[in-house]
Amino acid sequence: MTMGRTLRVLVVEDDEDMRVAVAAELRAAGFDVTPAPDIATAAAALSAKPFVCAVFDRMLPDGDSIEYVHRYRVAGGAVPVLFLTARDRRTDVVAGFASGADDYLVKPFRVQELTARVRNLARRAGSGRSTVLRFGDIEMDTARRETRRAGVLLTLSAKEFAVLEYLMLRPEQAISRADLIEHCWDELSDPKANVVDVTVKRLRDKLHDPNVIHTVRGTGYRFGSAGQS
Questions:
Q1: CB-hemisphere CA count at 13 Å for 13?
Q2: Angle at 168 between CA 166 and CA 170, to 5 degrees
Q3: How many beta carbons lie within 10 A of that of residue 171, not counting itself?
Q4: What mean pLDDT do residues 106-123 have?
Q5: What is the DSSP letter of 143?
Q6: pLDDT tens, position by position, 58-80
Q7: Mean pLDDT in the chain?
Q8: DSSP for 115-128, written as a single string
Q9: Quick check: helix, strand or coil at residue 69?
């Protein structure tokens, strides 16, 4: 990993053995880790230092971290958040993303997968971009994980959000399916051949007309105004 700046990660976990183990793995991968046993300590750290990612256990001694993350996002906090938790019900995962989380990893987990996911979030944090993307009547708030068209809030899955974000950051550019898979699916996944096309179709359906995601024959897709690529 290129260390042109401090890649500081906050690890919030009340189980000491787990906290020490996760911190050790992330340090071995080149991150500067700040451990925290509860929400209060995490909040103080986030207000005092810049982080490229925060890893939160869900249930902590002073509350459910999902509620804190929601408040943090509403207040404008933009540090990418990954929930690391044993709560694996679909409703828990959906609630995690709805609160403003960027990723959700269920225990037990492989340390290599955790490191890969943290590295991916760190890359996003390091881009230095604004948290709000706009194109015409489409507005995406990447901190709050919200997308609106003509003021109407859209319900996007994590992958739909990631694909739309990647395309919106590169308006009028032809983006290959391979690029979308590389940047929107984690490096340990094995997506099916048509997964990009399926995701884009769902995005188009949710965005409605006029269409802003155009097919580039032989390449992939282009986000922007109508016309030939």
A1: 23
A2: 75
A3: 13
A4: 83
A5: T
A6: 889 999 999 999 888 878 788 89
A7: 84
A8: HHHHHHHHHHHTT-
A9: helix
- Tokens coding 171: 């308006």
Which amino acid, 215?
A: T
Dump pLDDT digits (tens) for 159-199: 898 899 889 888 888 999 988 887 787 544 555 668 899 99
Contact between 66 and 99 (Cβ < 8 Å): yes
* Model-wide pTM > 0.70: no
Asked if 100 contacts 78 with a C-beta cutoff of 8 angstroms, the reply is no
Give which of 101, 94, 118, 90 is closest to 33, Cα–Cα.
118
Q: Report the residue count for the chain.
A: 229
Q: Where is pLDDT greater, at 38 or 119? A: 38
Closest CA to 97 of 47, 146, 59: 146
SS3 content of the chain, % helix, strand, coil (to 5): 40, 25, 40
H/E element, 184: helix 177-184
